[in-house]
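User: Show me a protein chain along with its predicted structure.
Assistant: Here is one chain, sequence first, then structure tokens.
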Amino acid sequence: MKQITAIIKPFKLEEVREALADLGVSGLTVTEVKGFGRQKGHTELYRGAEYVVDFLPKVKLEIVVKEGDVERCIEAIIAAAKTGKIGDGKIFVTNVERVVRIRTGEIDEAAI
């Protein structure tokens, strides 16, 4: 099993969720986060004063899938989240050793 963590622009969340649902992904975790990469941040004007926004709002998606589904999920996330502009985000894939569904006690792939 693998965990796919995707950091995307907030306005792309619904498109990515729909793309994953079309692949049969039944559960995901969404967290509102702030961060920056190469885009660094930007300057904004508030009440006549300029200030630097170092951390930009992003959304972090986390899903756990069978190893055979990883590439299809990555392709779906890229297709739905890509704008072609800086700050589109990143995808991280990590190994998952064990999954346990608390309610039923199911383990690993049965618990996904």
